[in-house]
């Protein structure tokens, strides 16, 4: 136990890996307790959180506003659909996801290079054009990409080793919905560990420096263009992974699934959870996944028709968004952490408000007086 505490305190990578392990245990327990419908909902939450995590890096940590991340997800989704359409089925699902990440990474690099000199609304406008234009590619190359109907995604059978492991641990057989949910959440955990380590390392410090003060960052020797492009690349890679999981979950890659609404949904998840916090991206994705059906069910139970109950969901969703902006302008996680930090600071100040009989050495620790009582 003491060794684990040392790892938690002194190793950033170790702390992230321990958190990932704990998260994996929670995922396994939850997925074994829910049915197939909830498992698919959790898979949907996973791909939204993956894409929102990448957008957190780009917008929250590096300060670039993107309205086109849904389009980057489309590249990952269509890559997955094309690869899984292989009748031989020889490519493992893990390699399919990695290939989708690679394609989105190439596209994101090209967009990042083109947009490296753009700022604020100009960058938002450029990525907005991307979100509007990309769905049209599927229509132009209709014979290959399925046109308006899209491509059906053929989900491979659950691997034998996964079935055996499931039966060994629980005595039950893993369903395809559970398999999809496990795939999505394992991808989420791996992605968040990588993003968290980048954000806490030297690369993340460069991203924050560019976000906070470009002039100071440039004087410190940071190449602004390279920092922006690297953030866009990392964010695009996460979007590719999210698009791959989306295609596998929905079993469809169609232009209607990657409109501007998806990009705005991702940005909403980031704002709700808190800019710059991966945990905020996860909470925001959870709200956007489970709040609409919850409100719809309440409306149905209250006697509303199915159509009116469905229309109630956007209203409540908008009200929640307004309340978060008014009451928690830093997002749910950001506001909670600021409140906790303020509480700790006040507690620390009360502890160091030393009475008259406190030794001078203790006062020296506060940094206000020396051990002789003279002012620094």
UniProtKB/TrEMBL annotation:
It comes from Nocardioides dokdonensis FR1436. GO terms for cellular component: plasma membrane. Residues 349-376 are annotated as: Disordered. GO terms for molecular function: branched-chain amino acid transmembrane transporter activity. It is a multi-pass membrane protein. It is found in: Cell membrane. This is High-affinity branched-chain amino acid transport system permease protein LivH. The chain crosses the membrane at residues 12-33, 39-58, 65-84, 90-115, 122-142, 179-199, 229-248, 254-272, 277-295, 315-336. Its main location: membrane. Residues 349-364 have a biased composition (Basic and acidic residues). InterPro entries: ABC_transp_permease, LivM-like. The keyword Heme does not apply. The gene is livH_2. Residues 365-376 have a biased composition (Polar residues). Keywords: Cell membrane, Membrane, Transmembrane, Transmembrane helix.
């Amino acid at each position: 136990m003491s060794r684990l505490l040392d790892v938690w305190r002194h190793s950033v990578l170790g702390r992230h890996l321990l958190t990932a392990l704990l998260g994996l245990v929670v995922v396994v327990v939850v997925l074994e307790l829910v049915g197939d419908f909830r498992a698919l909902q959790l898979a949907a939450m996973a791909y939204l959180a993956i894409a929102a995590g990448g957008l957190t890096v780009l917008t929250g940590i590096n300060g670039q506003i993107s309205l086109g991340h849904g389009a980057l997800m489309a590249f990952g989704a269509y890559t997955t659909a094309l690869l899984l359409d292989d009748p031989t089925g020889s490519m493992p699902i893990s390699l399919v996801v990695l290939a989708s990440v690679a394609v989105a990474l190439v596209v994101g690099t090209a967009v990042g290079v083109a947009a490296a000199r753009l700022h604020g609304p100009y960058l938002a406008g450029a990525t907005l054009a991307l979100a509007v234009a990309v769905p049209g590619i599927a229509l132009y190359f209709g014979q290959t990409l399925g046109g308006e109907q899209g491509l059906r995604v053929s989900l491979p059978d659950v691997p034998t080793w996964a079935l055996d492991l499931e039966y060994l641990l629980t005595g039950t057989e893993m369903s395809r919905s559970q398999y999809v949910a496990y795939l999505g959440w394992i991808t989420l955990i791996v992605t968040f560990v990588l993003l968290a380590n980048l954000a806490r390392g030297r690369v993340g410090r460069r991203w924050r420096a560019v976000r906070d003060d470009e002039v100071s960052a440039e004087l410190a020797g940071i190449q602004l263009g390279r920092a922006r492009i690297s953030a866009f690349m990392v964010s695009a890679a996460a979007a590719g992974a999210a698009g791959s999981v989306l295609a596998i979950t929905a079993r469809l890659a169609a232009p209607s699934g990657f409109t501007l609404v998806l990009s705005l949904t991702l940005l909403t998840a980031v704002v709700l959870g808190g800019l710059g916090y991966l945990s905020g991206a996860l909470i925001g994705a959870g709200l956007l996944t489970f709040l609409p059906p919850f409100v719809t069910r309440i409306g149905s139970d209250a006697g509303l028709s199915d159509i009116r109950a469905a229309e109630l969901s956007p209203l409540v969703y908008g009200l929640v968004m307004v309340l978060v902006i008014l009451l928690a302008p830093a997002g749910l996680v950001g506001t909670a952490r600021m409140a906790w930090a303020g509480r700790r600071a006040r507690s620390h100040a009360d502890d160091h408000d030393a009475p008259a009989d406190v030794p001078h050495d203790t006062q020296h620790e506060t940094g206000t007086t020396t051990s002789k009582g003279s002012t620094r």
